[in-house]
Design a protein that fits this description.
The protein has 10 helices and no strands. α3 runs antiparallel to α4, α5 packs across α8 and α8 packs antiparallel against α10. Helices cover 81% and strands 0% of the residues. With 274 residues, it is mainly α. The termini are far apart.
Length: 274
């Protein structure tokens, strides 16, 4: 009897359920990308049709094609005013969130500090930003520092609340484990409390990424001769609706870009999350 030599173990085929799950995940990602894009394109086409069919005056609501033409022709002006708003937004975002994280840490480790300053933070947050912005501009002057403070203030409170909640979210079992391991307070913070608070922190940073841009724009509305906020005021009073819409779209794009950067940072730092 002749026997054929074996060429080795044959690789196991990929399970059909796993393959179907992978395909379903790819379809879900594609759908999550295409649906918003198609929706935006549809809304732009509807906007164009309404303006053209109803003969809406350009100074009231320009067509998307007019807005794009203005964005191209006035790009130098838009780009020059984008940089101050970008700097103010990023600086305010960093400053406000840094103070919020430090203060939240103090609240967690000192009940007296929390009882003293948390009500003050809540009270400041109840004041409309449009009401407090002129005061801050008067205090810090018409320069960039006043806008940075406004952007920091508007992004401060959400991070403070979420960070306090995140630092306190550590379960009693984990604290007991740290005590059994003779962990120092610093080790408990860096190895237990801070990792547990990261999902809460990034949820707040997503909000702060957009609100910091709003704070910078409000500060420029109150008193500034540069920035996207000042350009919005100028375009409004001069009835330059194309420039107005282009500036608003660029401001929105800046908010989206900052939100996307925070989302990317969350994926890089929280790879352990599903």
């Amino acid at each position: 009897m002749t026997m054929t030599a074996s060429s080795g173990p044959t690789p196991a085929p990929i399970d059909a359920d796993i393959r179907a799950e992978m395909q379903a995940e790819r379809r879900a990602r594609m759908r999550a990308t295409l649906v918003p894009v198609i929706t935006v394109i549809g809304l732009i086409l509807l906007w164009q049709a309404v303006v053209v069919l109803l003969h809406v005056p350009a100074y009231i609501a320009p067509a998307p094609t007019q807005v794009m033409a203005t964005m191209v022709s006035d790009w130098a002006n838009l780009a020059a005013n984008l940089w101050p708003t970008l700097i103010e937004s990023v600086a305010g975002f960093v400053l406000g969130n840094l103070i919020a994280v430090l203060l939240a840490t103090a609240f967690v480790y000192s009940r007296s500090v929390e009882q003293a300053f948390y009500p003050i933070a809540v009270f400041i947050n109840t004041i409309p930003i449009l009401a407090i912005a002129p005061i801050l501009v008067l205090l810090f002057g018409p320069g960039m520092s006043g806008k940075v403070v406004i952007a920091a203030l508007i992004s401060f409170f959400p991070t403070l609340v979420n960070m306090v909640r995140g630092l306190k979210s550590l379960s009693p079992q984990m604290l007991e484990l740290a005590r059994i391991c003779s962990a120092s307070p610093a080790e408990v913070f860096w190895k237990f409390r801070l990792p547990a608070s990261m999902p809460y922190l990034f949820s707040a940073l997503r909000i702060a990424a957009t609100t910091s841009v709003i704070g910078a724009l409000v500060g420029e509305w109150v008193g500034s001769d540069q920035g996207l906020g000042a350009l919005i005021i100028e375009a409004t009073f001069n009835y330059r609706s194309g420039l107005l819409y282009a500036t608003v779209i660029l401001s929105s794009g800046l908010s989206v870009a900052m939100f996307a950067m925070v989302a990317l940072a969350e994926k890089l730092f929280l790879r352990w999350r599903p």
